[in-house]
């Protein structure tokens, strides 16, 4: 019986709709020191001060997120060019 309940839970969990995973959209990134191998990056900071507080004491630096898109700003909509062709007259 216990196995049936576990299998049912797994089935429901795999079929249940989930939310889409989206990239973090914050204006500041922390680049952590990692020696010769490089380090990790976290672009989850709203302010420069938050970012600096995070890297303080552990090494690293903060930089602007070049992929940041402020909320509410849609991509510019360019109107389609309308071409009016004059009818040929014979």
Walk me through the topology:
Layout lengths: L1 H14 L12 E5 L8 E5 L2 H8 L4 E5 L26
Antiparallel strand pairs: 1-2, 1-3
Residues in helix, %: 10-25%
Q: Give the rounded overall mean pLDDT.
A: 76
Distance between the termini: 87 Å
Biggest pleated-sheet summary: 3 strands, antiparallel
Notable characteristics:
alpha+beta, 90 residues, single chain, 17% strand, 3-stranded antiparallel sheet, flat, 3 strands
Give a structural overview.
Strand 1 (28-32) and strand 2 form a beta hairpin. Strands 2-1-3 form a three-stranded antiparallel β-sheet, with helices on one face. The chain has 90 residues and is an alpha+beta fold. It has a domain at 23-68. It has two helices and three strands, in the order αββαβ. The chain is flat and about 80 Å long. The mean pLDDT is 76.
Task: Explain briefly what this protein structure is.
The protein has helices spanning 2-15, 48-55, and strands at residues 28-32, 41-45, 60-64.
